[in-house]
Amino acid sequence: MNEPPLARYEATLQGLARKGRLRTLAPRIGFDFSSNDYLGLAASKRIGDAVAAAIARGTPVGATGSRLLRGNAPEHEALESDAAAFFGAERALFFGSGYIANFALLTALPHRGDLLILDELAHASMHEGARAGRAEFRLATHNDIDVFEDAIRRWRAEGGMGRIWIAVESLYGMDGDCAPMESLVALADRHDAFIVVDEAHATGVWGSDGRGLASAFEGRDNIMALHTCGKALGASGALVTGPGVLCDYIVNRCRPFIYATAPSPLMAVAAREALAILVDEPMRRVQLHEHVAFASRQLAERCGAKPNGSQIQPIVIGEVTRTMAIAADLQARGFDIRGIRPPTVPEGTSRLRISLTLNVSKADISAMVETLVEVLATA
């Protein structure tokens, strides 16, 4: 083989560039309309003070090992205890990231002989977990309960005898729409199925005290939920909540949990303080919901955008090059809005993803919409 060692990688990058899909790292610029720091907690003084106090009393930065070795710190256990109580679950486990947690759940819990049905627009980490896991898996049309149920009935008719697993997001991060949780739970009950629900974009923002869109169903023995700590909670990592038996199973059989160095105890401190803030400072959610309503009206009136009621508002452009040019223009004018393109979203649906946070004011939202109207008119 005479091909230079880097040639295949260079060719891939060149191909991505020709398609307008070459990614590069870009700095934070302008007003924040792209982050997931929905409640503005990433720079919270209260969280910072909690972490500083933990350092002062000797809490280490590093965990020093996996949770099953010496990496199980009191801070991890305190967070997990508080999280289980907060979310109404029997048990909680702290992972280093939401991506790893989703991957871990779908590779560890569904067994060979089971069927996993995955919403087609679920997060990439769920798709990776489905492909790497032992269960047979099928994709279902986004939010279509009939398609989910048809897949179950066909599989049973073909002789499938195992357990059914359903995997969804409660609030989809690129479309801003919500899963029909009540219908999904009813479907799971009809077929004796489990649900894995990724609450990443709902935790902290929706539900009582920010407990998420699936909060009414937590505590059931067929629900496993994932609550990301790196979005509205302003920290990093993720909490998996569910029945104690399944959490114990993860501790014993889940390789991404067993063999990974534990998250920093300081991140456990930060996430625990964020949960307390959700209860103590409800006005943050109220203010964010006001932002959502305000921005939805303006985007509908000025840009014809269809409101979805969430803090994530996509403006679908369609063509990749035009989408990225519009995003670059907005950034140059001081508004940090990023273009999203395939494979993150389906072909032909490249979009601007407008994210609403408490890092901007209503005046900033009005200025953003005004600028967006100007840019769209000339793009």
From TrEMBL:
Q: Which PANTHER family match?
A: 8-AMINO-7-OXONONANOATE SYNTHASE, CLASS II AMINOTRANSFERASE/8-AMINO-7-OXONONANOATE SYNTHASE
Keyword Lipid metabolism found: no
Is-annotated flag, keyword Repressor? no
Residues in Aminotransferase class I/classII large domain copies:
31-370
> What is the protein named?
8-amino-7-oxononanoate synthase
Q: Which UniProt keywords apply?
A: Pyridoxal phosphate, Transferase
Q: Which cofactor does it need?
A: pyridoxal 5'-phosphate
